[in-house]
Amino acid sequence: MNDGALRPARIDPGNPSFDEALADARALVDAELRRALAGEAGPIAQAMLYACKGGKGLRGFLVLEGARLHGLTKVQAAPVVAAIEALHAYSLIHDDLPCMDDDDLRRGRPTVHRAWDEATAVLAGDALQSLAFELVCRATIPAEARVMLALTLAQASGVAGMVGGQALDIAAETAPEPLGLDEVTRLQARKTGALITWAAAAGARMAGADPAPLIRYGDALGLAFQIADDILDIEGDAAEVGKATGKDAGAGKATFVGLLGLEAAKARARSLVEDACAALDPYGKAADTLREAARFVTSRRK
Amino acid sequence: MNDGALRPARIDPGNPSFDEALADARALVDAELRRALAGEAGPIAQAMLYACKGGKGLRGFLVLEGARLHGLTKVQAAPVVAAIEALHAYSLIHDDLPCMDDDDLRRGRPTVHRAWDEATAVLAGDALQSLAFELVCRATIPAEARVMLALTLAQASGVAGMVGGQALDIAAETAPEPLGLDEVTRLQARKTGALITWAAAAGARMAGADPAPLIRYGDALGLAFQIADDILDIEGDAAEVGKATGKDAGAGKATFVGLLGLEAAKARARSLVEDACAALDPYGKAADTLREAARFVTSRRK
């Protein structure tokens, strides 16, 4: 077992660049998952590792940066960084299933039910959700903080959060009228926003600090992220984005671009990025990497 | 909100009968789930409630009885009782999916994907898993105990536990040779045993006591339960059992009855029940309701 990335050292107090911190978070996820699944040889464990690879690692980065801002070590942050990426990967596997969005491509590679089969995809997703809670419970932080992380993760991912948002999204497909702007905003706040906000606020919760500024940051970032996603669905190239594009618009789905128009959607995303950056004021310059991340979200090409 | 069943009172120190305790556990599950899902009106929440109904509530009973043995109140036990039934219900919903066991009938009613659709079944199962961890984190017991419960629940339900066992079961269907007795025993210890043992040991963990005797009880009970299930698959009547019977044997699946013969399987189940009862010696007569439960398992008709 290679514990090189997990040496008990304070996270560098100087601000890392966004790219460095992203790469750092991805390395922590990889090490934690390999360690957690070291005893498992079957197709489920393989599919779990496969599904956690190839993403940007934005959610894991948010946990890592929030932890750094609150003086936590990488050893303390690593299981929580891996937990949010495991939970996100589970949601993608299940969203891609034939009975849901029926996607063949994810992150530029076949989806899990295409690379294996549907049963493996259901079970690998299920096991990644279990693993996320296991990892949160293993973090070397006070028990009160671990309980608060696990409780809020369960809420953010459950029927009041991510799963509820996904259900609204599916219901909207067969609704007689397309959703309005308020409805789409509320839907996305649950479907993608809840977990992004959880990731942003995790560092404060790990340290027993007030999560309010990071919650405000995460809420604005999550919505900006979704608007940017809708813009990419229109403007992006499938090969570059790594999944099918033009799909939402083609399906007559209500999107921020469809509701606001392309230019107004871009302006709204920029304004949300400014809100996100302003929410970080209490942290001063130490939060510049999180500000860089917010600006990246509206400029990304994939 | 009706909190009648949740008044903060010590669990009756006199031994309840098995039937009374089962009914008590089912009432706690119902009250906890209704409270947890009170703000949710959509089909996912409806399917979640539907899937948690109609079962015996054996796992919830095990949590409740273990809690009573360790002097905990019903208020303290209730969220954990509901958590294990929510987790069990999630596993049944996903096991019944067309890509898994493809069952139309469960507990005498249409399975969730038949009563709603596959997407609702996947999401309701996912949300029940989240809810199980949320409920464990909400129990009014020390944070250390909540973390230990959540951690062990994640392990028992994940790739090293229930999901891993289900994957082995699916793999066995297409394996060139049927499984041997040791392999079927190991498979069932993961697929159904891990959660039964978790339920049995939860009360000790809630109280910060040594869970070893209840783990031994749960391990023996879980295996006896699975052997009894195989016997019911042969001897049971579908209408009474509430799901298709003769299915495992018909599918050429390795079962305890197939490997041992009917009479030897019955003898093995009886011997395991005696082991389970003996493991409760440290609790004396206070554990008689758990002993009654173990004996029920091999005499049940559904």
Automatic annotation (TrEMBL), chains A, B:
Molecular function GO labels: geranylgeranyl diphosphate synthase activity; metal ion binding
Catalytic activity as recorded in UniProt: isopentenyl diphosphate + (2E,6E)-farnesyl diphosphate = (2E,6E,10E)-geranylgeranyl diphosphate + diphosphate
Protein keywords: Carotenoid biosynthesis, Chlorophyll biosynthesis, Isoprene biosynthesis, Magnesium, Metal-binding, Photosynthesis, Transferase
Entry's Gene Ontology BP terms: carotenoid biosynthetic process; chlorophyll biosynthetic process; photosynthesis
Pfam families per UniProt: polyprenyl_synt (PF00348)
EC code(s) of this entry: 2.5.1.29
InterPro entries according to UniProt: Isoprenoid_synthase_dom_sf, Polyprenyl_synt, Polyprenyl_synt_CS
Uppermost EC category: transferase
Cofactor: Mg(2+)
Biological pathway: Isoprenoid biosynthesis; geranylgeranyl diphosphate biosynthesis; geranylgeranyl diphosphate from farnesyl diphosphate and isopentenyl diphosphate: step 1/1
TM stretches of this protein: none
PANTHER family: FARNESYL DIPHOSPHATE SYNTHASE
Homology family: Belongs to the FPP/GGPP synthase family.
Annotated function: Catalyzes the condensation of farnesyl diphosphate (FPP) and isopentenyl diphosphate (IPP) to yield geranylgeranyl diphosphate (GGPP) needed for biosynthesis of carotenoids and diterpenes.
Protein name in the entry: Geranylgeranyl diphosphate synthase
